[in-house]
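Dear support,

Our group has been running a series of protein-ligand predictions, and this particular one with nicotinamide-adenine-dinucleotide is the one our PI (initials K.S.) wants archived with full inputs and outputs. We had some confusion internally about which version of the output was final, so please treat the block below as the authoritative record. The input we submitted was:
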Amino acid sequence: MATDRFKDRVVFVTGAGSGIGRGTAEIFAREGAKVFAVDLNEDGLKQTIAAISAAGGVADGVACDVASMASVRDAMTRAISTFESLDVLVNAAGVGRAIRFENMDEAEWHRVLSINLYGPFNTTKVAIEHLLKRKNANIVNVASISAMRGQAYNAHYCASKAGLLNFTRSLALEFASRGLRANCVCPGGVKTPLVRNFTPDSDMEPHLIAYSMPPVPGKWGKPEDIANVIAFLASDEARMINGAALVADFGVLA
Ligand SMILES: NC(=O)c1ccc[n+]([C@@H]2O[C@H](COP(=O)([O-])OP(=O)(O)OC[C@H]3O[C@@H](n4cnc5c(N)ncnc54)[C@H](O)[C@@H]3O)[C@@H](O)[C@H]2O)c1
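Confirmed final output from the archive:
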């Protein structure tokens, strides 16, 4: 259902070329926002922008590597020159894969941390001056249930998401008096291209993977399930929610 919940708001979404980021860009646009979408994958990004435009929404965007401060700065400059202000930053870009620690080399560790943790640092760094000029501005970071506990074969991803969660909580405290909120959504399994990378190898201990399963076996979320939570956190209805880690996982952590 289209509403005007985000009318006159500008939303910057990373990872908008696929999955949760795409679903998020679409929901914000449907509810009246002007969406600036970025992704490393230019084809996926173009599809998202075209789908939003075809549905009557307002979106623009540019290819951007969130791991590069220069690339993020260029994208933000473009966003501000296009839409003039910024109300909401959503960090959804992310990578990961199941891998035994003995096989995880330095480059793999660095890649996951540079996208999942340094990425939100880079975007926040360039967004903050614009967000602080607006009333009811906020940041929503897509963490994971992997932020809240250890997981075998996932050390780099868990470290990156736990870091993102406490980064977000720290921002929430530091900027509360200036009217800026920051929250995380912590999804469980959502059917997107990313989860293909988490198919376990035969040399991984099955009982260490089984405890990540939802209480209803085989139940997966859809990108819109998480996009709806993100939109709620970004909305004025959530004005009292700051520094939260909102879990959406069908009860895995319960
Ligand atoms: N799918 C899940 O089960 C799940 C669960 C918990 C958390 N998450 C988190 O949700 C977020 C979105 O993931 P998804 O499941 O939609 O996956 P996805 O692969 O569908 O989307 C991720 C997007 O991030 C983009 N991206 C990757 N590296 C980038 C970079 N350096 N710069 C810019 N964009 C980059 C990819 O091109 C892709 O479009 C991620 O942060 C992920 O960790 C996903």
